[in-house]
Amino acid sequence: MEITNVSEYEIIAKQKLPKMVYDYYASGAEDQWTLKENREAFSRILFRPRILIDVSSVDITTTVLGFKISMPIMIAPTAMQKMAHPEGEYATARAASSAGTIMTLSSWATSSVEEVASTGPGIRFFQLYVYKDRNVVAQLVRRAERAGFKAIALTVDTPRLGRREADIKNRFTLPPFLTLKNFEGLDLGKMEKTDDSGLASYVAGQIDRSLSWKDVKWLQSITSLPILVKGVLTAEDASLAVQNGAAGIIVSNHGARQLDYVSATITALEEVVKAAQGRIPVFLDGGVRRGTDVFKALALGASGVFIGRPVVFSLAAEGEAGVRKVLQMLRDEFELTMALSGCTSLKDITRNHIITPSNTNHAISARL
Protein backbone atom coordinates (compact mmCIF):
# COMPACT_ATOMS: atom_id res chain seq x y z
CA MET A 1 0.00 0.00 0.00
CA GLU A 2 1.32 3.40 -0.94
CA ILE A 3 1.15 5.76 1.98
CA THR A 4 -0.42 9.08 1.03
CA ASN A 5 -1.05 10.66 4.44
CA VAL A 6 0.32 10.70 7.96
CA SER A 7 -2.58 8.84 9.61
CA GLU A 8 -2.02 5.72 7.51
CA TYR A 9 1.19 5.05 9.40
CA GLU A 10 -0.79 4.35 12.57
CA ILE A 11 -2.57 1.43 10.87
CA ILE A 12 0.78 -0.11 9.89
CA ALA A 13 2.28 0.53 13.35
CA LYS A 14 -0.67 -1.24 14.98
CA GLN A 15 -0.04 -4.33 12.81
CA LYS A 16 3.70 -4.37 13.46
CA LEU A 17 4.08 -3.48 17.13
CA PRO A 18 3.41 -5.68 20.19
CA LYS A 19 0.08 -4.73 21.75
CA MET A 20 1.69 -3.34 24.92
CA VAL A 21 3.91 -1.00 22.88
CA TYR A 22 1.24 0.15 20.42
CA ASP A 23 -1.21 0.81 23.26
CA TYR A 24 1.42 2.80 25.16
CA TYR A 25 1.97 5.11 22.17
CA ALA A 26 -1.63 5.32 21.01
CA SER A 27 -3.76 5.57 24.12
CA GLY A 28 -4.90 8.52 26.19
CA ALA A 29 -6.13 8.96 29.74
CA GLU A 30 -9.34 7.46 31.13
CA ASP A 31 -12.29 7.88 28.69
CA GLN A 32 -9.92 9.22 26.03
CA TRP A 33 -12.35 12.06 25.31
CA THR A 34 -9.54 14.57 24.93
CA LEU A 35 -7.62 12.13 22.72
CA LYS A 36 -10.47 12.18 20.18
CA GLU A 37 -11.10 15.88 20.71
CA ASN A 38 -7.47 16.79 19.90
CA ARG A 39 -8.23 15.65 16.35
CA GLU A 40 -11.90 16.57 16.07
CA ALA A 41 -11.42 20.17 17.18
CA PHE A 42 -9.27 20.77 14.09
CA SER A 43 -12.11 19.56 11.86
CA ARG A 44 -14.42 22.27 13.21
CA ILE A 45 -12.14 25.04 11.97
CA LEU A 46 -12.84 26.04 8.37
CA PHE A 47 -10.93 28.10 5.82
CA ARG A 48 -11.60 31.50 4.24
CA PRO A 49 -9.16 31.30 1.32
CA ARG A 50 -8.13 34.38 -0.63
CA ILE A 51 -7.92 34.13 -4.42
CA LEU A 52 -6.02 35.67 -7.32
CA ILE A 53 -2.84 36.12 -5.35
CA ASP A 54 0.48 35.21 -6.97
CA VAL A 55 1.54 32.03 -5.17
CA SER A 56 4.21 30.93 -7.63
CA SER A 57 6.69 31.17 -4.77
CA VAL A 58 5.72 30.09 -1.23
CA ASP A 59 8.23 30.45 1.61
CA ILE A 60 7.54 28.29 4.67
CA THR A 61 10.85 28.83 6.49
CA THR A 62 10.79 30.31 9.98
CA THR A 63 12.88 31.05 13.04
CA VAL A 64 12.42 29.43 16.45
CA LEU A 65 14.35 30.92 19.41
CA GLY A 66 16.73 32.43 16.85
CA PHE A 67 17.30 29.17 14.95
CA LYS A 68 16.37 29.12 11.28
CA ILE A 69 14.36 26.05 10.34
CA SER A 70 12.86 24.84 7.06
CA MET A 71 9.23 24.84 8.22
CA PRO A 72 7.13 25.53 11.36
CA ILE A 73 6.78 21.78 11.98
CA MET A 74 9.01 20.26 14.68
CA ILE A 75 9.31 16.95 16.50
CA ALA A 76 7.77 16.67 19.97
CA PRO A 77 9.39 14.59 22.70
CA THR A 78 8.11 11.02 22.69
CA ALA A 79 9.52 8.48 25.12
CA MET A 80 11.18 5.12 24.52
CA GLN A 81 11.42 5.18 20.74
CA LYS A 82 13.48 1.98 20.54
CA MET A 83 10.27 0.15 21.42
CA ALA A 84 9.08 1.28 17.99
CA HIS A 85 12.25 0.55 16.01
CA PRO A 86 15.78 -0.67 16.89
CA GLU A 87 17.30 2.67 15.80
CA GLY A 88 14.80 4.66 17.87
CA GLU A 89 15.88 8.20 18.62
CA TYR A 90 18.92 7.92 16.33
CA ALA A 91 16.62 7.53 13.32
CA THR A 92 14.36 10.38 14.46
CA ALA A 93 17.35 12.69 14.98
CA ARG A 94 18.70 11.98 11.50
CA ALA A 95 15.27 12.47 9.90
CA ALA A 96 14.76 15.81 11.68
CA SER A 97 18.22 16.99 10.69
CA SER A 98 17.76 16.05 7.04
CA ALA A 99 14.40 17.88 7.02
CA GLY A 100 16.05 20.97 8.50
CA THR A 101 13.86 21.05 11.58
CA ILE A 102 14.07 20.67 15.36
CA MET A 103 13.89 17.41 17.29
CA THR A 104 12.98 17.40 20.98
CA LEU A 105 14.50 14.47 22.85
CA SER A 106 12.52 12.99 25.73
CA SER A 107 14.04 12.64 29.20
CA TRP A 108 12.75 9.07 28.97
CA ALA A 109 14.49 8.31 25.71
CA THR A 110 16.04 4.92 25.02
CA SER A 111 19.09 6.78 23.63
CA SER A 112 21.12 9.27 25.66
CA VAL A 113 21.71 12.94 24.87
CA GLU A 114 25.29 12.06 23.93
CA GLU A 115 24.19 9.25 21.61
CA VAL A 116 21.68 11.48 19.84
CA ALA A 117 24.30 14.23 19.47
CA SER A 118 26.64 11.67 17.88
CA THR A 119 24.25 11.23 14.92
CA GLY A 120 25.59 14.49 13.47
CA PRO A 121 24.61 18.14 13.28
CA GLY A 122 21.07 19.30 14.01
CA ILE A 123 19.08 21.68 16.16
CA ARG A 124 17.83 19.75 19.17
CA PHE A 125 15.85 20.61 22.28
CA PHE A 126 15.77 18.52 25.46
CA GLN A 127 12.52 17.73 27.25
CA LEU A 128 12.97 17.68 31.00
CA TYR A 129 11.09 15.97 33.81
CA VAL A 130 12.08 17.27 37.22
CA TYR A 131 13.11 14.40 39.50
CA LYS A 132 12.93 14.56 43.28
CA ASP A 133 16.72 14.45 43.35
CA ARG A 134 17.72 17.85 42.00
CA ASN A 135 21.30 16.69 41.49
CA VAL A 136 20.00 14.28 38.87
CA VAL A 137 18.23 17.16 37.14
CA ALA A 138 21.26 19.48 37.25
CA GLN A 139 23.49 16.73 35.90
CA LEU A 140 21.09 15.97 33.06
CA VAL A 141 20.79 19.64 32.07
CA ARG A 142 24.58 19.99 32.02
CA ARG A 143 24.89 16.89 29.84
CA ALA A 144 22.29 18.28 27.41
CA GLU A 145 24.20 21.56 27.24
CA ARG A 146 27.49 19.79 26.59
CA ALA A 147 25.87 17.65 23.90
CA GLY A 148 24.88 20.82 22.06
CA PHE A 149 21.16 20.89 22.82
CA LYS A 150 19.76 24.40 22.32
CA ALA A 151 16.78 24.65 24.68
CA ILE A 152 15.00 22.91 27.55
CA ALA A 153 11.33 21.98 27.16
CA LEU A 154 10.17 21.72 30.76
CA THR A 155 7.14 19.45 31.10
CA VAL A 156 4.86 20.97 33.74
CA ASP A 157 1.68 18.89 33.48
CA THR A 158 2.94 15.67 35.10
CA PRO A 159 3.22 15.95 38.91
CA ARG A 160 1.61 12.50 38.71
CA LEU A 161 1.04 10.28 35.70
CA GLY A 162 -2.43 10.34 34.15
CA ARG A 163 -4.53 7.20 34.39
CA ARG A 164 -3.87 5.36 31.16
CA GLU A 165 -6.05 2.28 31.41
CA ALA A 166 -4.45 0.42 28.50
CA ASP A 167 -1.11 0.57 30.32
CA ILE A 168 -2.73 -0.74 33.51
CA LYS A 169 -4.37 -3.63 31.64
CA ASN A 170 -1.13 -4.46 29.82
CA ARG A 171 1.02 -4.06 32.97
CA PHE A 172 3.14 -1.75 30.86
CA THR A 173 6.87 -1.79 31.47
CA LEU A 174 9.96 -1.02 29.43
CA PRO A 175 11.09 -4.18 27.58
CA PRO A 176 14.04 -5.82 29.39
CA PHE A 177 16.55 -5.15 26.60
CA LEU A 178 15.96 -1.37 26.84
CA THR A 179 16.77 1.27 29.45
CA LEU A 180 16.00 4.94 29.98
CA LYS A 181 19.48 5.78 28.71
CA ASN A 182 19.79 9.24 30.24
CA PHE A 183 19.46 7.69 33.71
CA GLU A 184 21.37 4.47 33.17
CA GLY A 185 24.41 5.45 35.26
CA LEU A 186 22.19 6.76 38.07
CA ASP A 187 20.36 3.48 38.66
CA LEU A 188 17.15 5.18 37.52
CA GLY A 189 17.10 3.64 34.05
CA LYS A 190 15.00 0.57 34.78
CA MET A 191 11.29 0.21 35.33
CA GLU A 192 9.96 -2.52 37.58
CA LYS A 193 7.13 -4.81 36.49
CA THR A 194 4.18 -4.01 38.76
CA ASP A 195 0.51 -4.93 39.08
CA ASP A 196 -0.23 -1.51 37.59
CA SER A 197 1.45 0.54 34.88
CA GLY A 198 5.21 0.26 35.47
CA LEU A 199 5.59 3.84 34.26
CA ALA A 200 2.99 5.15 36.73
CA SER A 201 4.90 3.47 39.57
CA TYR A 202 8.20 4.88 38.27
CA VAL A 203 6.78 8.40 38.12
CA ALA A 204 5.29 8.10 41.62
CA GLY A 205 8.71 7.13 42.94
CA GLN A 206 10.91 9.57 41.03
CA ILE A 207 9.09 12.66 39.73
CA ASP A 208 8.69 15.69 42.01
CA ARG A 209 5.06 16.45 42.82
CA SER A 210 6.04 19.69 44.55
CA LEU A 211 7.20 21.30 41.27
CA SER A 212 6.17 24.97 41.13
CA TRP A 213 7.07 28.27 39.45
CA LYS A 214 10.00 28.70 41.85
CA ASP A 215 11.57 25.64 40.21
CA VAL A 216 11.41 27.39 36.84
CA LYS A 217 13.50 30.14 38.45
CA TRP A 218 15.84 27.49 39.89
CA LEU A 219 16.26 25.95 36.44
CA GLN A 220 17.18 29.36 35.02
CA SER A 221 19.81 29.68 37.73
CA ILE A 222 21.56 26.46 36.64
CA THR A 223 21.40 26.86 32.85
CA SER A 224 21.71 29.56 30.27
CA LEU A 225 19.58 27.58 27.82
CA PRO A 226 16.16 29.07 27.00
CA ILE A 227 13.31 27.32 28.80
CA LEU A 228 10.07 26.43 27.05
CA VAL A 229 7.19 25.65 29.41
CA LYS A 230 5.35 22.63 27.98
CA GLY A 231 1.83 21.87 29.19
CA VAL A 232 0.15 25.29 29.39
CA LEU A 233 -3.59 25.36 28.60
CA THR A 234 -4.84 28.59 30.19
CA ALA A 235 -4.38 32.36 29.93
CA GLU A 236 -3.54 32.53 33.64
CA ASP A 237 -0.62 30.14 33.31
CA ALA A 238 0.52 31.79 30.09
CA SER A 239 0.82 35.10 31.96
CA LEU A 240 2.74 33.39 34.78
CA ALA A 241 5.08 31.76 32.26
CA VAL A 242 5.92 35.18 30.83
CA GLN A 243 6.38 36.66 34.33
CA ASN A 244 8.69 33.81 35.32
CA GLY A 245 11.00 34.28 32.39
CA ALA A 246 9.98 31.44 30.07
CA ALA A 247 11.44 31.80 26.59
CA GLY A 248 8.34 30.25 25.07
CA ILE A 249 5.18 28.26 25.73
CA ILE A 250 4.12 24.91 24.33
CA VAL A 251 0.35 24.53 24.48
CA SER A 252 0.04 20.84 25.23
CA ASN A 253 -2.24 18.38 27.00
CA HIS A 254 0.47 15.71 26.91
CA GLY A 255 -1.11 13.96 23.95
CA ALA A 256 -4.33 13.67 25.99
CA ARG A 257 -2.50 11.31 28.37
CA GLN A 258 -2.79 13.31 31.60
CA LEU A 259 -6.08 14.98 32.59
CA ASP A 260 -8.99 13.81 30.46
CA TYR A 261 -11.70 16.35 29.52
CA VAL A 262 -9.31 19.23 29.08
CA SER A 263 -9.73 21.19 25.86
CA ALA A 264 -8.05 20.16 22.67
CA THR A 265 -4.82 22.08 22.30
CA ILE A 266 -6.10 23.87 19.16
CA THR A 267 -9.09 25.07 21.26
CA ALA A 268 -6.89 26.32 24.12
CA LEU A 269 -4.36 27.95 21.79
CA GLU A 270 -6.00 31.29 21.16
CA GLU A 271 -6.52 32.12 24.83
CA VAL A 272 -2.86 31.36 25.54
CA VAL A 273 -1.67 33.41 22.55
CA LYS A 274 -3.76 36.41 23.68
CA ALA A 275 -2.34 36.21 27.21
CA ALA A 276 1.24 36.00 25.94
CA GLN A 277 0.64 39.27 24.03
CA GLY A 278 3.48 38.60 21.63
CA ARG A 279 6.06 38.76 24.43
CA ILE A 280 7.15 35.16 23.90
CA PRO A 281 6.35 32.64 21.14
CA VAL A 282 3.59 30.11 21.64
CA PHE A 283 3.73 26.67 20.02
CA LEU A 284 1.08 23.97 19.65
CA ASP A 285 1.54 20.28 20.40
CA GLY A 286 -1.21 17.71 19.97
CA GLY A 287 -3.46 16.35 17.26
CA VAL A 288 -1.55 17.59 14.20
CA ARG A 289 -1.94 15.08 11.35
CA ARG A 290 -2.33 17.32 8.28
CA GLY A 291 -0.74 20.38 6.74
CA THR A 292 -4.16 22.02 7.10
CA ASP A 293 -3.82 21.56 10.88
CA VAL A 294 -0.50 23.41 10.83
CA PHE A 295 -2.08 26.33 8.94
CA LYS A 296 -4.99 26.48 11.40
CA ALA A 297 -2.59 26.61 14.36
CA LEU A 298 -0.59 29.43 12.79
CA ALA A 299 -3.78 31.33 11.92
CA LEU A 300 -4.67 31.19 15.63
CA GLY A 301 -1.31 32.68 16.57
CA ALA A 302 1.05 29.70 17.03
CA SER A 303 4.66 30.22 15.96
CA GLY A 304 4.94 26.54 15.05
CA VAL A 305 3.72 23.05 15.89
CA PHE A 306 5.21 19.87 17.32
CA ILE A 307 4.25 16.37 16.19
CA GLY A 308 4.51 13.30 18.43
CA ARG A 309 2.55 10.16 17.56
CA PRO A 310 3.09 10.51 13.78
CA VAL A 311 6.81 10.18 14.50
CA VAL A 312 6.63 6.98 16.54
CA PHE A 313 4.10 5.36 14.22
CA SER A 314 6.11 6.12 11.08
CA LEU A 315 9.27 5.04 12.91
CA ALA A 316 7.62 1.70 13.73
CA ALA A 317 6.48 1.28 10.13
CA GLU A 318 9.59 2.31 8.19
CA GLY A 319 12.32 3.53 10.53
CA GLU A 320 14.17 6.71 9.56
CA ALA A 321 12.61 6.69 6.07
CA GLY A 322 9.14 6.74 7.63
CA VAL A 323 9.90 9.75 9.82
CA ARG A 324 11.42 11.55 6.82
CA LYS A 325 8.27 10.83 4.82
CA VAL A 326 5.97 12.13 7.58
CA LEU A 327 7.92 15.38 7.73
CA GLN A 328 7.89 15.68 3.94
CA MET A 329 4.15 14.95 3.64
CA LEU A 330 3.25 17.53 6.29
CA ARG A 331 5.59 20.03 4.65
CA ASP A 332 4.03 19.49 1.21
CA GLU A 333 0.47 19.63 2.53
CA PHE A 334 1.17 22.80 4.52
CA GLU A 335 2.77 24.51 1.53
CA LEU A 336 -0.22 23.54 -0.63
CA THR A 337 -2.66 24.85 2.01
CA MET A 338 -0.79 28.16 2.05
CA ALA A 339 -0.92 28.46 -1.74
CA LEU A 340 -4.62 27.60 -1.90
CA SER A 341 -5.32 30.12 0.89
CA GLY A 342 -3.41 32.88 -0.90
CA CYS A 343 -0.43 33.07 1.47
CA THR A 344 3.18 33.26 0.26
CA SER A 345 4.94 33.47 3.65
CA LEU A 346 4.06 32.68 7.26
CA LYS A 347 3.43 36.33 8.03
CA ASP A 348 0.59 36.31 5.48
CA ILE A 349 -1.37 33.76 7.55
CA THR A 350 -3.94 35.64 9.65
CA ARG A 351 -6.97 34.99 11.83
CA ASN A 352 -9.08 36.12 8.86
CA HIS A 353 -8.07 33.00 6.94
CA ILE A 354 -10.13 30.75 9.22
CA ILE A 355 -13.57 30.44 10.78
CA THR A 356 -13.76 28.87 14.24
CA PRO A 357 -16.97 27.51 15.83
CA SER A 358 -17.24 30.56 18.10
CA ASN A 359 -17.19 32.98 15.19
CA THR A 360 -19.02 30.92 12.54
CA ASN A 361 -22.51 32.30 13.24
CA HIS A 362 -21.19 35.79 13.77
CA ALA A 363 -19.21 35.60 10.53
CA ILE A 364 -22.20 34.38 8.52
CA SER A 365 -24.58 37.02 9.87
CA ALA A 366 -21.98 39.76 9.44
CA ARG A 367 -21.56 38.89 5.77
CA LEU A 368 -25.25 38.54 4.87
Determine the number of helices (DSSP H or I, runs of at least 4 residues). 14
Gross morphology is: globular
What is the strand content? 5-15%
DSSP summary, beta strand count: 12
- What kind of sheet is the major sheet? 8 strands, parallel
Rg, nearest Å: 20 Å
> What is the H-and-E element order?
HHHEEEEHEHEHEHHHEHEHEHEHEH
Write down the overall mean pLDDT.
94
Helical content (DSSP H or I, runs of 4+): 40-55%
Helix- and strand-based class?
alpha/beta
Order of strands, main sheet, comes to 4-11-10-9-8-7-6-5
**Model regions low in confidence, pLDDT < 50 over at least 5 residues:** none
Oligomer: single chain
End-to-end separation in angstroms reads 46 Å
Notes on the structure:
The protein is α/β, with parallel strands linked by helices. The chain contains 14 helices and 12 strands. An 8-stranded parallel beta sheet has the order 4-11-10-9-8-7-6-5. Strands 1-12 form a two-stranded antiparallel ribbon. Helix 1 runs antiparallel to helix 13, helix 4 runs parallel beside helix 13 and helix 12 crosses helix 13. The radius of gyration is 20 Å and the shape is globular.
What characteristics describe this protein?
two-stranded antiparallel ribbon; alpha/beta; single chain; 8-stranded parallel β-sheet; 14 helices; 368 residues
Compact overview of the structure:
The chain has 368 residues and is α/β, with parallel strands linked by helices. 42% of the residues lie in helices and 12% in strands. It contains 14 helices and twelve strands.
Layout of strands and helices, then pairs:
Elements: H1 8-16, H2 19-26, H3 33-43, E1 46-47, E2 62-64, E3 67-69, E4 73-75, H4 88-99, E5 103-105, H5 113-117, E6 124-128, H6 134-146, E7 151-155, H7 165-169, H8 198-206, H9 213-222, E8 227-232, H10 235-243, E9 248-252, H11 265-276, E10 282-285, H12 291-299, E11 304-307, H13 309-341, E12 354-355, H14 357-367
Helix pairs in contact: 1-13, 4-13, 10-11, 12-13
